[in-house]
Amino acid sequence: MLSLKLSALALFAAAPLFAQSAATLHSATDLAQVETRLTATAKSSPSGVGIDTIDDFGSARTLMVVRVHTGDAELHDRWADQMYITKGTVTLVTGGAMKGGHTLAGQEGETRGPSVDGGQEIVLHVGDTVHVPAGVPHWVKVPPGTTTTYLIFKEK
């Protein structure tokens, strides 16, 4: 019985070693500043996209994306994407087959292509969220003349 109590005490005493990380906060003001910067980047970029990694914890990442026009289709071998639309509307095409896909140099498992054929189209509005599993081609289509902002929560 004493051995069991000592084992429980040892586990309890070790717990703070694993619980030392503080929460990471990004205020609405902070995110609005990032969005303003990314909007300027997207509007001045031939790709029409501004993207920034807000958090990177190794197996989980948070990104903010601003798009002013449709970009390339994507496929991530190891990362699932959870998208949350914060501004605008997009049509997300998932599944199907990526046309003309090529692996990004230096980014194993990351494929880009000009479009997706035969996928399911889903219209997403502010407040909508969607999960795209790893290995599924997806393509964000932005209506002409609009700006769309969304957060991506990536997880391995």
From TrEMBL:
InterPro entries assigned to the protein according to its UniProt record, in alphabetical order: RmlC-like_jellyroll, RmlC_Cupin_sf
Domain of life: Bacteria
Presence of the UniProt keyword Hydrolase in the record: no
Keyword terms: Signal
UniProt key word Transcription: no
Signal peptide annotation: 1-19
Protein's name according to its UniProt entry: Cupin type-1 domain-containing protein
Taxon lineage: Bacteria, Pseudomonadati, Acidobacteriota, Terriglobia, Terriglobales
